[in-house]
Amino acid sequence: MGAEEEQNPVVRRALLRAAVAVPAAGAAGMALSGPTPAHAQPRAAARGGRFDPRSPRFALAVLPDTQYLFDADSADPTPLRETFRYLAAERASANIAFMTHLGDVTEHGTEDEIELAADTFRTLHGKVPYSVLAGNHDIRSSTDDQRGDSAYLAAFGPARYASMPTYKGASPDGYNTFHVLPAGGREWLVLALDWRVSDKGMRWAQQVLDTHPTLPAVLTTHDIAWADGEGRATLSGNGDRLWNGLIKGNDQIFLALGGHNWPPGRTVLTNDFDNDVHVHVTNYQDRYYGGAGMIRTYGFDLARGVIDVETFSPWFLSREPRKRSALEAETVELTGDVDRFSLAVDFDERFAGFAPIPVPAPRPPSAVMPRGTLAYWRFDATGTRAPGAGGTPVADGVVMRDLSGNGNDLTVSRLHAGGPEALTWSTDHHLGQPAHASIRFDGGKNPDRGAILTTGARAPLNAEKFPRGYTIETFIRLPEPFEGDHDWMGVLSWQGRSGDAGKTTGWSPLEPTCSLNVSPERYLQFVVYPHRQDADPTSWSHTVPVGRWMHIAVVNDGRRTTLYVDGSKIARNPSQPSTGIATLGKPFVLGATSFDERFGQGFYGSMGDTRIVGRPLSRREFLLPAD
Can you name the residues that pair with 623 across neighbouring β-strands? Predict the structure, then answer.
């Protein structure tokens, strides 16, 4: 932070060089109750290891102003060396992709300070790739990136990064660099921009973005925002220039990070594409020991659609808790709202404007009928003679052909008060589904209504006993919002009563011999009355999501039944022996479950490709492509 720069009064304050004020009780320095974060677990030894660029979970480490650790004759690089040792040791376990420094590496930018800092950064060299940018204390603060040579440029210019695989280039002046990170199965762009970017530097940054038009970008610079005491961030004068001249017009930039000012804060701005840009100011130089090499980690979780942010000091963390001083103990981790938080980001949706996910081409039926396929239905032109336009009704009497050739065609009919809207065509589908089509059911209660698809009276599937096991697969999507009473709605079933099969166990002798249902908690329930055993082994899933396509697979190996959701085995699978299905020669049904061979409510949701195979399939044989 520079005294010559106009600052908001909230952040204009004197800093006690030897120590800073202790936070009041209840401030951000206090530890949260609950499980200890992963970074806070004691380490017996450094683990090291390799970074996994394919994992959907990875971290970006952010290091703000370290200037008080490199301040003339009071310099102490020890905290930062420990931070770098931590990042190197934890790179594999935390899957750390990159580290970026936000400027003000040193206090005065002298050759001695810069040399000591450059030597300290060598602790990280070759272990974790990184970027550094100039803050106002590292160079003459009255200049921009056209200032020419400096001690900073000699130590932290392009030559420092040349051996790093992530480094891809620098502006002609050398003060701005860009880096491309392989992480989460894709590439990400990091722009490291000088404390004051010239018009030439802005044009260079735009050229970098134009040359990498499909890469999500994180912009880092020294001065982008300031925050009030509540952590609400506002663009600084320089930040406003960057916003108007570079950020808001480039949809790729979704995260902009700066230091320089304190306290930390954050805000969300809307760019020209009506998308969110998260702007964060991060600086801990005002805290005990000049921030003690404190880092902030941005934990990207592409599977959950979140970025989890944590702030802590590896130097203090490395010490035994009982040996930490009072100030060390309260600064080891910061847990206030601006230091530890999660950002909800639908990455696919946020990046769709410049990097849409390629939709796989439809797979022909012949490609998805493994040995033992008994029935396969899909709702595109290959599965029926006359699929309608999206949103139009599927008429009663429409036949969905069994593409296996085994004669298990399905015929559409309405239930009770089901009108035309009870079953409609749709082009919506799971991205991994072979066919790019589905049907949407609008079933419900009070009054009972819906639609079903049933096999004919003589279909072979009606009497199939599955002595060698089976695999039943389908794709479903529950609507969002999930409105109305749909407790215990059926997804698929065989008609026929368990009592008629001679089964004495189970909930009721009127229950169907096999069904997949949705409970009031939105648990999937698969219950089967085996052909051989007098039992009703039942699988229960977790609460399944709404508004998202899912692949469901039930696999029986002739002894046990296992339910999978999106290729993951669920926890509550029964250990009861289960061989075959007591089908009783009754029709197979999509869209409802019968009770006493009578249907109540119909399914509420969308359904895609459905397949039944007369043997257990491995995960790699599922309709859902394996990762």
Answer: none
